[in-house]
Amino acid sequence: MAITITDPEDERLHDYVRLTDVALRRRLEPEHGLFIAESEKVIRRALAAGYTPRSYLMAPRWLTDLADLVEDAEVQGIPVFTGEHEVIESLTGFHLHRGALASMERLPLRPVADVVSAARRIMVLEDIVDHTNVGAIFRSAAALGVDAVLITPRCADPLYRRAIRVSMGTVFQVPWTRIDPWPGSVEMLRELGFEVAALALSEDSMALDEYAVVAPDRVALVLGTEGDGLSRRTLHTVDRVVRIPMAGGVDSLNVAAAAAVAAWTLRVERSGSQRTVRA
User: Fold this and answer.
1) What's the DSSP call for residue 239?
2) 160 to 22, 36, 256: CA distances (angstroms)
3) DSSP helix/strand/coil, 131
């Protein structure tokens, strides 16, 4: 049976306090091994990916709309909290217009070699700090056939609520892990069979569509942080630098848009057991 809440200070709701405080949540969620999934679609994708809920928080009408999840939670002894919108908003800091939240247990991060073992196209996100961009990149990666995503130590958390929401839950679909140290692990990617290509503007860069024609079977594409782009050290370490040709006086794209263009251009078609690189 759902537990009706009337007091936003209820200690049982600690997982959901001040979800809009990014700095606080960056520390609290990984430290306590949790993340917050928002909306029915995202929650269901997280469950399908093997994540375990700690509790649910939802407005009353969603007790009916998500009746199967509520029933499963009751069987498993997982608390389901419900309350009026005003109480939930006071607790979380925002209006819960997507109906439901779930506090989920994080899974241990897998080793890089395990995550990329069967991959042909992967992306490395270097110090991308905006959760919206991280979420958008994961959504493009899922849609356009990127096999895995690696994130550097200072990159934003893909399991932060906003990143998950923007990705539409595809952070649970695309295999990912952290790669550390960076760029010291470029050599490890080479040893795993990848050519490491950086997407950046430089005089010696190669047009992305031209690179797609000659790209090897396994490519790790490195994308840089907003504003500053890739570090000089990274650019001096990678095997190749590629660029998206620009027109109209525009010098570059937002990193999430660039990731989508690059994923499409370097996509590998999979037809049965046959795989071919599309130029």
Assistant:
1) S
2) 9, 7, 17
3) helix
Phi, psi (5° rounding) for residue 182?
Answer: -135, 135
The structural domains of the chain, with segments of one domain joined by +, span: 3-105, 112-277
Residue 4 scores a pLDDT above 80: yes
* Nearest alpha-carbon partner for 65 in 7, 8, 159, 2: 2
Read off the pTM: 0.91
CB 155 within 8 A of CB 183: no
Distance separating alpha carbons of residues 172 and 175, to the nearest angstrom: 7
Of the pLDDT bands very low, low, confident and very high (cuts 50, 70, 90), residue 270 is low
Tokens in use for 170?
């595809």
Q: Which fold has domain 3-105?
A: 60s Ribosomal Protein L30; Chain: A; (3.30.1330)
Euclidean distance between CA atoms 30 and 256, whole angstroms: 24
* CATH number belonging to domain 112-277: 3.40.1280.10
User: Which residues face 148 on adjacent strands?
Assistant: 122
